[in-house]
Design a protein that fits this description.
Elements: E1 15-19, E2 32-35, E3 38-41, E4 43-49, E5 53-56, E6 63-66, E7 71-76, E8 80-85, E9 90-94, E10 109-114, E11 127-132, E12 136-141, E13 146-152, E14 157-164, E15 173-178, E16 182-187, E17 190-195, E18 211-216, E19 225-230, E20 235-239, H1 244-251
Antiparallel strand pairs: 1-4, 2-3, 5-6, 7-8, 8-9, 9-10, 11-12, 12-13, 13-14, 15-16, 16-17, 17-18, 19-20
């Protein structure tokens, strides 16, 4: 991301490139054209700008452009994307299979469309952070509650609009990293994981079986996680080691390389 010329630094350019077959580039064009009898989708090979963001009236279905949207965060899934504005508005676009865009429909969106469920200014419905998963999305509100929508293969959820993830109720969640087969969550001074485990990626010790319900990782209680990430069969945690107690907890971690 780079700043736009003659604009304050908080106004960011939204640059995209790649395939827009399902509208995931948010440029109101799928890139589809007909070559003979075949339908072909072209790709954008140099960065292009996402110019506009929109909202749709739930009653009349009228689409209105929202002026001067400043984006502070973006995330991309397999064929869909999301963005959070500096006003904490949440926008999604692209492929909408299983309702992964959160608009109560399954129709693809070629342009960034605001998710009306979330409302800036309401701590219960204002977005702190959000992430695209393989088949859906997750969002954390300002109170640390987690919402999800679309298809979540781990807990078998399928819903076209945001619903609370009740298994995390009571946790003050700061960050969430949805992977294809497992999810990682940071909350207060704990790290939590759920999903399938093949190589110990849930961090719950040897012999741990896959779990559709979240549980604490072993050995990191008391450490403040700044960021988490979920790979194909591995997990990363970035933790705060700025005080002596945290340094001791990190030094005491028993790392098994077998």
């Amino acid at each position: 991301l780079g700043t736009e010329p003659n604009q304050p630094k908080q106004w960011y350019q939204r640059r995209v490139r790649g395939s827009s077959e399902c509208g995931q580039l948010g440029i109101n064009d799928s890139g589809e054209y007909i070559d003979g009898r075949k339908s072909i989708f072209s790709a954008i090979t140099t960065p292009g700008r996402v110019h506009s963001f929109f909202t749709r009236d739930p009653r009349t279905k009228e689409v209105t452009r929202i002026p001067q949207v400043s984006v502070r965060y973006v995330s991309a899934g397999q064929h869909h994307c999301l963005a959070i504005s500096t006003k904490n508005e949440l926008f999604t676009w692209g492929f909408n299979g299983h309702g992964r865009l959160g608009h109560k429909t399954t129709e693809d969106e070629l342009i960034p469309m605001r998710v009306l469920f979330f409302r800036p200014g309401d701590p219960h419905l204002s977005v702190r952070t959000a992430k695209c998963s393989y088949g859906g999305c997750f969002a954390v509100n300002n109170l640390g509650n987690v919402f999800c929508w679309g298809q979540n293969q781990i807990n078998r959820l399928e819903c076209p609009y945001p619903v609370p993830l009740d298994d995390l109720y009571g946790w003050n969640v700061h960050d969430i990293a949805p992977g294809k087969n497992h999810h990682v969550i940071t909350a207060d001074y704990s790290a939590i994981a759920m999903g399938k485990t093949t190589m110990g990626e849930l961090g719950m010790g040897p012999g741990t079986k896959s779990s559709s319900r979240p549980d604490k990782m072993h050995g990191v209680d008391g450490l403040k996680s700044i960021q988490c990430a979920a790979g194909c069969a591995h997990t990363l945690l970035l933790v705060d080691d700025s005080d002596s107690e945290a340094k001791k907890l990190i030094d005491d971690l028993d790392v098994n390389h077998d």
